[in-house]
Amino acid sequence: MLRTSTVTTRARTARVVPASPFDLITKPSRSFSSSSTSNKQQLVILGSGWGGYELLRKVDRRRYDVTVVSPNSYFAFTPLLAGAAVGTVDYNSTLEPVRAFPDARYYQAWADKIDFANKRLTAMPATGSALRKRLNAETTDESSEALKPATSFPGFKPFELKYDKLVIAVGCYSATFGIPGVSAHAYFLKDVRDAAKIRQRILECFELACQPTVTDDERRNLLNFVIVGGGPTGVEFAGELHDFLTSDLTRAYPQVVDLCKISIYDVAPGILGSFDKSLQEYAEDKYVRRGIAIKGNRHVESVDEGVLHVKEEGAVKFGLAVWSTGLAANPLIDSISELDKDDKTHSLRINDSFNPSTKDGKVVSDVYCIGDASALENKLPPTAQVASQEAAWLARILNAEVKQRAPPGAFKFNNQGTMAYLGEWTAIVDRSKADGPQGELTGRAAWLLWRSAYLYKSMSLRNMVSLSYHWAMSAIAGRRLSRF
Predict the structure, then answer these.
(1) CB 3.0–4.6 Å: which of 171, 292, 310, 450 could bond 427 by disulfide?
(2) Which Pfam family is one of those matched by this entry (predicted)?
(3) How many CA atoms, within 13 angstroms, populate the side-chain half-sphere of residue 311?
(4) At 382, phi and psi to the nearest 5?
């Protein structure tokens, strides 16, 4: 898998506000306490992903005054985003609202700076105003009306929060490896917004291909869907897209669907490098039989609008490029200079109780870090199950401390195995390195286990029912093809 520290501008979980010309929005800042009357300890959680949201669910909110700071007002069930991107499930079926917990405060904001010495952090609102939209796009149009003083936008001012205990669960960004044009011309699949954009682009490509002025060569280029990254996310999206093409789009666009092509590019020789070799071969064989090209040992040099420049192939024209090549450090983590970091991932080094340390080895006992932003000594993979289990264990630590009970001890990861959907009601399940019963499963039985596991893992009864309904409707009546 490719590695780098370059960060894309999408799917933000934290933001360092740039210097001039936007400095005018950072002054003056306002200071808030999580609670002005409560004697409870102030617990601030940064992030609402697998780590932050799971901790919010399981920490004792009766004994802690909990505040969540996240640019997203929801938790996204990321394994289902590939299905949402093609309409197999509804977007809302993958989301859980952070505000479902009325006994916790929530601010939709980016954490910009942490003052560990004084136990304070600075945050910037992540919603509202035309200025926020311009900052999201990283524009530098100084003449724009958007660059008005911050006082013109109610609520759009930086603010400070105090904490007694701080949990950093901001996750990571998609890595672009410094390759020019990736952020501008490729799509990512880390958030529900990304899934919505991908779905719109797929349908847009088909509508453009049906225009009478388009040549057959242009149609082939528009209907060439490339996926950069052969990990589980890229492979599952390829499977979902193949299902979409061979069922719903075949009926809706019979005149052009035969021109479609799906290709997976990776620097590794094959796909699913984290799975057992036999499962890799099974997946590759399935995809080759379906006409999905597996292009290993490929190096993308740059991306232009509609063109992927590959070292081994030259210019590859496409209609949609989905980039899923790995993770890079969050800007908030990059901004922290006081704490020790992993040399390779630049994540915060933590002990078995999730506490980071200063560069001289002093443990910061009132700060915790979990999920992709952290690095345990035993180097666990940056997956949802790791972040979720770390959050559940941290909740036990915090609950034991506030109740003055013995701590649960060092964190122990329970490897439950890995799964990937391959399309056409087939999947693979790898428990060759799992704790407990070990083995492998493929085909329809693996698909049933895959769906059952994700249905069970859904955070609410509402989403369990919603997922079941949309899976059934997609199979019986097909996916919706409307664009809006």
Answers:
(1) 450
(2) Pyr_redox_2
(3) 9
(4) -80, 75
